[in-house]
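Quick check before the chapter quiz. The format below is the same one you will see on the exam, so make sure you can read both the input and the output lines.
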Amino acid sequence: MELRFFGKVINSHVFKVLFFICLVSIEYLATTTIQIEMVENMWDKSNHFFAFFVLYILLSLGYLKMDMQVKIYILLTFAIQIEVVQYFIEGRYFSALDVVADAIGIVLGIIACKILERKIPKKINI
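Here is the expected output.
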């Protein structure tokens, strides 16, 4: 499948790769005990919101035919998994508010994708 973006055709595989790079990066940042100054200086909930906003958009662009409910399920499962893992890491803890921030990022990602669907014409090659 392909997507037209600013007049150029971009293969959805690019977005799939970007999605998995972000997924692995977020998992690392969420579970490392190393203090990363740039991440630590930001408000924690904004990190969660932004991460899941981007993940939803990349997942949607990479998997154009995937049902929205499946995308939400995948990302919320990932969000809960992060919090469960953090519970077992010294200096980290489980935070339901982090999952809420993740969910807000997903919802705003859905809204952004709906806006993009209206603005960007798609070309599907099967």
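If your answer matched, good. The chain has one domain: 2-123.
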